[in-house]
Amino acid sequence: MPSMRHTDPNKRRSLVCDFLVQHQPPGTKGKAPDSARLPLVSAPGGLMVNQTNHNDESSTYHQPVMSEEVVRWLGPIADNGIVVDATFGGGGHTRSLMSNTANDIEMVVIDRDPDALANASDLGDSVTAIEGNFAQLGDMLVSQGITAVAGVLFDLGVSSHHLDVEERGFSYRRTGPLDMRMGADTDLTAAEIINDWPEDDIAQTIRSLGEEPRARRIARAIVDARPLTTTTELAAVIEVAVAGGRPDRRHPARRTFQALRMTVNDELDSIRAGLDSAIDILGPGGRCVVISYHSLEDRIVKRRFVDGATGCVCPPDLPVCVCGREPELKILTKKPKTPSADEIAQNPRARSAKLRVAERIAS
Ligand SMILES: C[S@@+](CC[C@H](N)C(=O)[O-])C[C@H]1O[C@@H](n2cnc3c(N)ncnc32)[C@H](O)[C@@H]1O
Q: In testing the pocket of ligand 1, which one of 49, 83, 112, 162 has its CB within 8 Å of the most ligand atoms?
């Protein structure tokens, strides 16, 4: 069995410090945040980020979803080795795990958004923070000398912070630039899609990733209205394009914004690569916990887990197995877990959450 412990915690700890020192905006060191929105600083690629630490009690960075379930599935294995929070965000899940486990658990926390990692500054020496896309999870861990882990958590999608900070351009309700990048690891922006892509490609993207039935009409209206520079300009164009259609109690721009965000951040491919990487690096008995928020994400998770839990794939008429395939996973949640009515009432964002867990089979 490969080693589950990292040999040089000081090396990993310094990564957090280097990161925070490099990104600390002038004059903010050690100061409590005024709000989730200020101050913004320019990161590589012109991405506007807010490097303030949001981990005080009044933090509005993000309210974690299904925290008790996360602790229920990852708590019992946390003593076996490192637990990776691959979508650190406001750090709510990491903090729940740390405060609900008896021993000081060793964690690696990852986020592609430098704003999120600023929340990790007070977590102590047992936590290492890494900025990056979880699609490269394996490489990130191996570069830290970690060859096996006890658990990996993915809490997919955007954080509330992304929607709250208008400069990030995720919200159709707040005026901001058409950006939508979660981190500086991608160059594509929503503005480029909206202003440069052919109508057919925009329609196809909105249809497939936004599951938007009025995709063609919206794409045509976008092309006619070019150039568009702000989120609320785009939302207004969409509202006019679909006016008079079937009434929808949700905002008419919701699906288009989802599709743009998923494209800009290459979200579905990142999930596929991240899951493969996580499953590869789980030690025997290690668990992968995934919370998804819409069917496109959940389908990928479900299929990957089912595929990993599948053994022999030989035709049934063969007398003996010739494929030699062994299952690598055991699915622990036959049906996805969902939040309670109470949690949904307190945190409407939890409404669509589905949590799935698989365990690496000892080979
Ligand atoms: C739903 S939030 C996580 C919230 C977190 N669990 C908490 O308790 O605050 C998702 C986070 O994952 C990050 N993220 C999304 N896709 C990512 C990816 N491919 N690689 C790394 N981080 C990603 C986002 O930047 C965001 O901060």
A: 112
Q: Over the stretch 12-65, which tens digit does the pLDDT of each residue have?
A: 443 443 333 333 333 332 223 333 333 566 666 677 666 555 554 335 899 999
Output the CA–CA distances (angstroms, integers) from residue 308 to 29, 211, 276, 337, in the order listed. 46, 28, 10, 19
CA 119 – CA 99 distance, rounded (Å): 16
Find out whether the beta carbon of 92 lies less than 6 Å from any atom of ligand 1: yes
Residue 354 Cα to ligand 1 middle (Å):
16
Read off the pTM.
0.88
Q: Is the CB of 170 under 6 A from ligand 1?
A: no
Q: Domain boundaries in the chain?
A: 9-161+267-360, 187-264
Q: Is 297 in the pocket of ligand 1 (CB under 6 A)?
A: no
Distances in whole angstroms, Cα of residue 249 to Cα of each of 1, 50, 232, 307, 310: 53, 33, 19, 37, 41
Please indicate whether residue 119, judged by its CB atom, sits closer than 6 Å to ligand 1: no
Helix axes 199-210, 215-225, angle to 10 degrees: 140
The total number of residues written for the chain in this structure: 363
Amino acid at 196: D
Question: Is residue 358 within 8 Å of 305, Cβ to Cβ?
Answer: yes
Domains 9-161+267-360 and 187-264 share a fold: no
The CATH H-level superfamily of 187-264 is Putative methyltransferase TM0872, insert domain (1.10.150.170)
CB of 207 within 6 A of ligand 1: the answer is no
Query: In the chain, which stretches have pLDDT less than 70?
Result: 1-45, 48-59, 363
Q: Provide the pLDDT for residue 333.
A: 98
**Which atom of ligand 1 lies at the shortest distance from residue 89's CA?**
27
Query: pLDDT digits over 146-173, tens only?
Result: 999 999 999 999 999 999 999 999 999 9
Residue nearest to atom 12 of ligand 1 (CA): 87
Residue identifier of the C-alpha nearest atom 13 of ligand 1: 87
Name the CATH superfamily for 9-161+267-360. Vaccinia Virus protein VP39 (3.40.50.150)
